[in-house]
Specification:
The complex is a heterodimer of chains A (about 240) and B (about 350). Chain A has about 240 residues and is α/β, with parallel strands linked by helices. Chain A has 9 helices and 10 strands. In chain A, helix 3 crosses helix 4 and helix 3 packs parallel to helix 5. Chain B has about 350 residues and is an all-alpha fold. Chain B has a single domain, classed as Orthogonal Bundle (ABC transporter involved in vitamin B12 uptake, BtuC), CATH 1.10.3470. In chain B, helix 3 runs antiparallel to helix 10 and helix 4 packs across helix 5. Chain B starts with a helix and ends with a helix. Classes of the chains: A alpha/beta (about 240), B mainly alpha (about 350).
């Protein structure tokens, strides 16, 4: 349960997030909106990269904003990046291991936990390949494995399907749907691919110019007039 | 959990694969490496006269400095232009300790390394905020500051006690060698062993938690933070480790023939050091060896051939240009590739049939 109240971020004259108030329940929640709506900024606030000027974020009753940036991962915030950031010079195994060993994962279960995460995304045949030698789809999966290893408490997926062909997106959708059961952590999914969002998310929130304009059951939200006009253009059919 | 059982089996197989990927044909490499080290330790000193042995000894000592700087640049992605002066600090601390205490030589150089490491971490503090050119500039300023301090203290000075100062000081000063390595040949071997230990330390760090954290840092700050890496700690650790190595090398240098004097450590040599480290290659530990040879052996060779060592500046300039433009991995990465290409071409010349089978380059 993530409660965001009155969250405001300002970069000079730009206000990418403006008094955002939303409560995200468990399971997979979609976060959509046009480019520049503030979705990635919201993730950056949750990861600690951006400090809001006002508002609060409470996750499971704890004040997330009070946690230092690199300790957020240890607390349980995991994320993937819009431009994929799996570490090219490390193997798939080491990429996942890096997260595990820096987030307080126990030594005794380290090998097992890391392999579980690698297996979860289906990369165990490539476990010892350098990430730099993998294709874009596999590198995205490495990021997902990094996000689920150990004990995540909040998983943020920032356009995980960007640049992926349809069949790879389908595979990814199946994985994303399994994350909440596998890790017991809520997932927030940002993507422009509405079919992916509909397939994965029971609930969806919509941002436009930093404001929350709709939230609720995904099917309902996607039919909302405001959402259609803001996000998809007034004339388009869904 | 049947899946786990099969995985573990698979993992062992593929761990072997990693080793193959990292160091070519693992066991073969190891044997070649052992052979090489054995030759350097036992064979090389018998082939060289006193002059060349001194040159090679200093190359071995400097390879520890280039190793540290290579780690800092190649693994952690930070530049330091004060490593040469940290070498002087290491030599200084070792000498002062020798005046003040009766610590055995190995302890002396380790303490010199640790003190230098702490100073290096202090200089590295700006690295928490700055990177690239600005960081380089600040470390260069630090190098200048160290020179001032050394001159005021009349480095290396022969006064008694740790802070002792003799009015007559300022001349060259030499650390007594350990009893087991009093002669030049023995001291050369001693240095090779210490350098070997430093390389083992480097490999251990690069392959471990630090190496993974540095890899994340080098890719991007955000990646590292998102993975839970304490970026401050690992940046400082990289600086401290590189400086520790420079300090240990300084201790060894202080006991090298001729000892040390202030004129040995001009500030601009740190830039030269950066140049050779880049040319040697920062992504491979062999690069450190190549860099040290470029730094110490090449000038001596040119001198021996009657070529002005001033030419080196031009040579290094061209070398840097070539590395930056065409071979970011440096000589340690490029030469094996070039040799492999050459070998393939030669084979093609000998038997044109193989040409079709050869993979495209």
């Amino acid at each position: 349960m993530i409660e965001v109240h009155g969250l405001t971020v300002r970069f000079g004259g730009v206000v990418p997030i403006d008094r955002m108030t939303v409560t995200l329940a468990g399971g997979t929640c979609g976060l959509i909106g046009p480019n520049g709506a503030g979705k990635t900024t919201f993730f950056n606030v949750l990861s600690g990269f951006v400090k809001p000027i006002a508002g609060s974020v409470h996750a499971f009753g704890e004040d997330l904003l009070a946690v230092t940036d690199f300790r957020r991962a240890r607390w349980g915030v995991r994320r993937t990046f819009q431009t994929e950031q799996a570490i090219a010079n490390l193997t798939v195994y080491d990429n996942v291991l890096l997260v595990h060993e820096n987030t307080g994962g126990g030594r005794a279960t380290r090998r097992q936990d890391v392999m579980d995460a690698v297996t979860f995304v289906g990369l165990e045949p490539e476990a010892n390949h350098l990430v730099g030698t993998l294709g874009v789809a596999s590198r995205r999966l490495v990021e997902v494995a990094r996000a689920v290893v150990g004990k995540p408490r909040l998983v943020l997926l920032d356009e995980p399907a960007a640049g992926l062909p349809a069949d790879e997106t389908e595979h990814l959708a199946q994985l994303i749907r399994r994350i909440p059961q596998e890790t017991e952590a809520p997932v927030i999914l940002v993507d422009h691919d509405m079919s992916l969002v509909s397939a994965c998310c029971a609930t969806t929130a919509v941002l436009d110019f930093g404001r929350l304009i709709a939230s609720g059951a995904t099917a309902q939200v996607l039919r909302d007039e405001h959402v259609i006009s803001a996000y998809l253009g007034a004339e388009e059919e869904l | 959990m049947t899946a786990v059982g099969t995985l573990e089996g698979g993992e062992t197989d593929s761990t072997g694969e990693v080793r193959t990927r990292r160091s070519g044909r693992g066991p073969v490499r190891l044997v070649v490496l052992a052979g090489l080290v054995a030759f350097v330790v036992f064979g090389l000193p018998t082939l060289l006269d006193r002059y060349w042995l001194q040159i090679v000894t200093s190359a071995v000592i400097y390879s520890i400095v280039t190793l540290g700087l290579g780690l800092l640049i190649g693994r952690a992605g930070m530049v330091s232009l004060c490593q040469f002066l940290l070498l002087a600090i290491g030599a200084w601390v070792a000498l002062r300790l020798e005046y003040a205490t009766s610590l055995p030589f190995p302890v002396l150089i380790v303490v010199a390394g640790v003190v230098t490491g702490l100073i290096g971490a202090l200089i590295g503090l700006p690295a928490l905020r700055l990177s690239g050119l600005y960081l380089a500039l600040i470390t260069l300023m630090a190098a200048g500051a160290i020179t001032v301090v050394l001159r005021i203290a009349q480095f290396p000075n022969g006064g008694g006690g740790f802070f002792g100062n003799s009015a007559a000081g300022g001349a060259s000063s030499r650390l007594p060698r350990p009893a087991i390595a009093a002669g030049d040949t023995a001291y050369f071997r001693y240095c090779v062993v210490v350098a070997g230990l430093m390389f083992v330390l480097a490999v251990w760090q690069v392959r471990g938690k630090s190496g993974r954290a540095w890899a994340a840092l080098r890719q991007s700050q955000a990646t590292a933070v998102a993975a839970g890496v304490n970026t401050m700690l690992y940046r400082l650790w990289a600086f401290a480790l590189a400086s520790f190595m420079a300090g240990v090398a300084g201790g060894l240098l202080a006991a090298d023939s001729g000892g040390v004097n202030i004129n040995q450590f001009p500030v601009q040599n740190s830039i030269l050091l950066l140049a050779v480290v880049l040319m040697g290659g920062v992504y491979s530990l062999w690069g450190a060896v190549v860099a040290a040879l470029l730094l110490r052996l090449l000038p001596a060779l040119l001198d021996n051939w009657g070529v002005s060592t001033e030419l080196l500046t031009i040579l290094f300039g061209i070398g840097i240009l070539q590395v930056l433009l065409t071979a970011p991995g440096g000589l340690a990465d490029q030469v094996p590739k070039d040799l492999a290409n050459l070998g393939r071409r030669l084979r093609n010349l000998v038997s044109p049939k193989a040409k079709r089978a050869a993979p495209p380059t």
